[in-house]
Amino acid sequence: MRLEKDIEKILIDQEALQKRTRELAEQITKDYEGKPLTVVATLKGAVLFFSDLVRWIDLPLQLDFMRVSSYGSGTRSSGAVQIIKDLDADVTGRHILIVEDIVDTGNTLAYLYDYLINRGAVSVRICTLLEKTARRERKVNVDYTGFFVPDEFVVGYGLDYAEDYRNLPFVGVLKRSVYEK
Ligand code: IMP
Ligand code: MG
Fold it and tell me: Is 104 a catalytic residue?
């Protein structure tokens, strides 16, 4: 309850998150049958979603992690993307599924997509927990979307505001008073 006091409203509760994550995993299982698959989580926002998702994908697969930054600590994307931590393994000849927390302007994923294709992946697809379409600046083909959310700043289930709130078990709207003070 200490964390919840800063939440305006819950948008997606734990049960809905779990149900949708399993549905996506089932679809991914069908789509990648027989293909060498590497599932790449973007740190840190996607880790809760990623760890729930991969345990329901019923296929042999490898896990890898990247950390990119486009944000700083505010609530607006800066547009410039930087790689802070690269993949550990060679992905030549492998199919990559990027798992992201949220696609907002699209800058991060447009960059990552091109980057991973250039690393020799056979295919690159995107699975995101959340999509905000209101502020899209770059066209990105998102293959799997958990939920569409309105243009409000959301936190929880991996998503942060200035590194806090990632451990909330639901996705909620942050009170404006938290970041406008
Ligand atoms: P994009 O490059 O604008 O698409 O932004 C993607 C990144 O911005 C995400 O991976 C998040 O880290 C962050 N982000 C965008 N919107 C939100 C939000 O509402 N809450 C928390 N993080 C957000
Ligand atoms: Mg983030």
Answer: yes
- Whether the per-residue pLDDT at 73 is higher than 60: the answer is no
59: CA distance to ligand 2 center in Å?
Answer: 28
| E strands, the chain, in order | 7-12, 37-43, 61-69, 82-85, 95-103, 123-131, 144-148, 154-155, 171-174
15: number of Cβ within 10 Å: 9
Residue from 7, 67, 78, 102 to probe ligand 1 pocket by mutation (most atoms less than 8 Å from CB) = 102
- Helices 14-31 and 47-54 meet at what angle, rounded to 10? 60
* Mean pLDDT, rounded, for 20-36: 98
Q: Could you tell me the pTM of the whole model?
A: 0.94
**Tokens 């000849």 sit on residue:** 93
In this structure, which residue's CA is closest to atom 19 in ligand 1? 153
- Which of 77, 100, 170 is the best mutation target for the ligand 1 pocket, counting ligand atoms within 8 Å of the beta carbon and taking the most? 77
Q: What is the pLDDT of residues 115-125, one digit of tens each?
A: 999 999 999 99
Please write the tens of the pLDDT for every residue from 110-159.
999 999 999 999 999 999 999 999 999 999 999 999 999 999 999 999 99
3-state secondary structure of 94: coil
Residues 2, 9: Cα–Cα separation, whole Å: 15
